[in-house]
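thread: overnight batch results

M.L. [08:02]
morning all. the overnight job finished for the chain we discussed friday. pasting input first so we're all looking at the same thing
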Amino acid sequence: MGVEKFGPVRVGLLGIGTVGGGTFEVLWRNRQEITRRAGRRIEITQVADRDVDHARRIVADRARVLDDAAAVVADPAIDIVVELIGGTGVALKLVLAAIEAGKHVVTANKALLAMHGNEIFAAASRRGVMVAFEAAVAGGIPIIKALREGLSANRIESIAGIINGTTNFILSEMRDKGLAFDAVLAEAQRLGYAEADPTFDIEGVDAAHKATILAALAFGIPVQFDKCYVEGISTLQSTDIKFAEQLGYRIKLLAITRRRERGEGPHGIELRVHPTLIPARRLIANVEGAMNAVWVKGDAVGETMYYGKGAGAEPTASAVVADLIDVARVLTADPENRVPHLAFQAESISDLPILPMDDVETAYYLRMRVADEPGVLADLARILADGEISIDALLQREPGAGEDQTDIVLLTHVTFERRVNQAIARIEALPTVLSKVVRIRLEELA
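M.L. [08:03]
and the structure it wrote out:
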């Protein structure tokens, strides 16, 4: 081809499941284009998988297949290790072993980085190797590269992302078809959008892993998964989705991270995942099905949004192979001239704290079942006023014939979470309030 200045880059692939198989096929199918971009060939020469027969069916005679991932990591002929095993046990040992052996690492493992990223990046810095992880967040959407490079001139102000396709599919179906959560979850499992055990998805853990990584990249802080507030969608009711629609909003599971260094209250970084009302007119509110989207606001660029498939064999493989190309391009560069793992130079990592939820500022949707009698609204308004919470909108369902109770929905202006918690406790103590208060946070994303 006349473009190669160096010999081929030899890759060891650990795990050839859905994403691993996609990675192998994309790299093979597009090998000529990839060589032209990287300036040298990138070859998966060894594949490790416990299911050797399955691996051999995929790779045929195009690579050596082993059942021992540690042997691939230890082989001095391997330049880059691609970790697609998942989990935080064996994967951590293999990644650290690869780094210690002086090998570069590419991984799609968001849980590993969210929980052990500080240790991994520190080890990589000591050994002068790269750890690339574009595929760890939002599948084929190049959001990591956008934050590390494309938006590096900006002071990032806030990020909001739909970064779990399973939950977005469920919420889209609940809204479109008016079905209950359990019915839509069963359909998602039948269609393959949800795992047999969907806990990590529906309880927000998967999105929180990704949000933790995005916060570190955006604000130059260490990864701190243990400080991320996490709330899933398993208790969300179709009633609230309908009320939100009537008020001009849609409910999405959002990962939100925001810088706060001015105004009332302590300074720090908000890091949270929870169901969120978004104005229906906003572009991100119209991201449907299993698609992902990430909204980023920078001081210079303003608002940007990145949209695409957040999972699947080839979309995720697109990100894995792009990382391989990046590593191949800079293999001969001095470590100090490479883009830092978390966008900021290691010695410049900030100690700005993650704020507890009590100190988070946002608006709120509050729904409660109340007795249909005079004075109820006055009591609610008084409690909110006492808590310095102002009402933005109110919706009251007319009781049916013979009914003596009804639903009231309130939207608040932006306030502190601790004030809302205190107000909810007082509201639920009223004899005219007949249910727990449903509280969903609301973001205008302006």
